[in-house]
């Protein structure tokens, strides 16, 4: 007879195979996240494993329970300044026929891709249609919220808002702020599992990837798979931005590490301006 712990370990393995999120060493943490769901369904952990096989749509509900979606507008100011002041000018010759393509690879409730688009609009470097921003997440619930672009005024989403950003980029409602249509409608939201083997065909080639504070939930094998996919999707010379506590230097994945006085990020091969950047491998 299987114990709940054994069943949770099996469920953790299924989750890992499905999306790379790793609860295999901490099944009790998984239990705390899904306990109410199991009670609601009247299923044991072992029965729930079978339920996921019989009802694949249940994965969407499980993903809602086990993913972390804490984010906010204009997160990591130094990195965003580097993106706006140093990276974007390199692409200012892009046109609607050959647009700059940027992917927010785990967009959660949308604060990151909206921030990216706000910075692009503020830069005034590009004509209409010369930039495409794709935003994706595995969690359909938060993705739907992102598409709406509506946030409570008292939300922690606004904890780091620059002066003047509310009037410039939002419409004030009674209890909420709504992202202006000019920003919201310029982003292509997609439901994407980063463990999907066909991810390139769903995203296409891009020039810049943001995937911040996501890799901390994966083990080294899952990270390697995701980073290899990013490398494949990026155009030569393209950039990868991770969270300030995340590093892939030890993977030797083919990225150059770009160092500045305040941030570091990654670049896919090619030439770069040595007067601006120093690199380490």
UniProtKB/TrEMBL annotation:
<dbReference type="InterPro" id="IPR022642">
    <property type="entry name" value="CheR_C"/>
</dbReference>
<dbReference type="GO" id="GO:0008757">
    <property type="term" value="F:S-adenosylmethionine-dependent methyltransferase activity"/>
</dbReference>
<keyword id="KW-0808">Transferase</keyword>
<feature type="domain" description="CheR-type methyltransferase">
    <location>
        <begin position="1"/>
        <end position="271"/>
    </location>
</feature>
<dbReference type="GO" id="GO:0032259">
    <property type="term" value="P:methylation"/>
</dbReference>
<dbReference type="Pfam" id="PF01739">
    <property type="entry name" value="CheR"/>
</dbReference>
<dbReference type="InterPro" id="IPR050903">
    <property type="entry name" value="Bact_Chemotaxis_MeTrfase"/>
</dbReference>
<keyword id="KW-0489">Methyltransferase</keyword>
<dbReference type="InterPro" id="IPR029063">
    <property type="entry name" value="SAM-dependent_MTases_sf"/>
</dbReference>
<protein>
    <submittedName>
        <fullName>MCP methyltransferase, CheR-type</fullName>
    </submittedName>
</protein>
<dbReference type="InterPro" id="IPR000780">
    <property type="entry name" value="CheR_MeTrfase"/>
</dbReference>
């Amino acid at each position: 007879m299987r114990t709940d712990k054994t069943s949770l370990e099996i469920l953790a393995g299924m989750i890992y195979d499905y999306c790379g999120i790793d609860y295999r060493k901490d099944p009790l943490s998984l239990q705390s996240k899904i306990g109410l769901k199991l009670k609601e369904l009247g299923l044991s952990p072992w029965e729930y494993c079978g339920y996921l096989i019989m009802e694949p749509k249940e994965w969407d509900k499980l993903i809602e329970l086990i993913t972390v979606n804490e984010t906010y507008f204009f997160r990591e100011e130094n990195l965003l300044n580097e993106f706006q002041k140093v990276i974007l000018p390199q692409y200012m010759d892009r046109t609607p026929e050959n647009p700059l393509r940027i992917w927010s690879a785990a967009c959660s409730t949308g604060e990151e891709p909206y921030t990216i688009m706000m910075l692009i609009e503020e830069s005034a470097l590009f004509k209409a249609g010369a930039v495409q921003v794709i935003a994706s997440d595995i969690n359909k619930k938060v993705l739907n919220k992102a598409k709406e672009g509506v946030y409570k005024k008292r939300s922690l989403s606004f904890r780091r808002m620059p002066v003047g950003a509310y009037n410039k980029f939002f419409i004030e409602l009674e209890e909420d702020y709504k992202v202006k249509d000019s920003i919201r409608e310029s982003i292509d939201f997609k439901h994407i599992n980063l463990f999907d083997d066909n991810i390139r065909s769903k995203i296409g080639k891009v020039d810049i990837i943001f995937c911040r504070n996501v890799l901390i939930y994966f083990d080294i094998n899952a990270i390697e798979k995701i980073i290899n996919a990013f490398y494949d999707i990026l155009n030569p010379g393209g950039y990868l931005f991770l969270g300030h506590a995340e590093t892939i230097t030890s993977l030797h994945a083919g990225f150059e590490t770009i160092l500045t006085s305040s941030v570091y990020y990654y670049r896919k091969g090619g030439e770069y301006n040595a007067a601006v950047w120093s690199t380490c491998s």
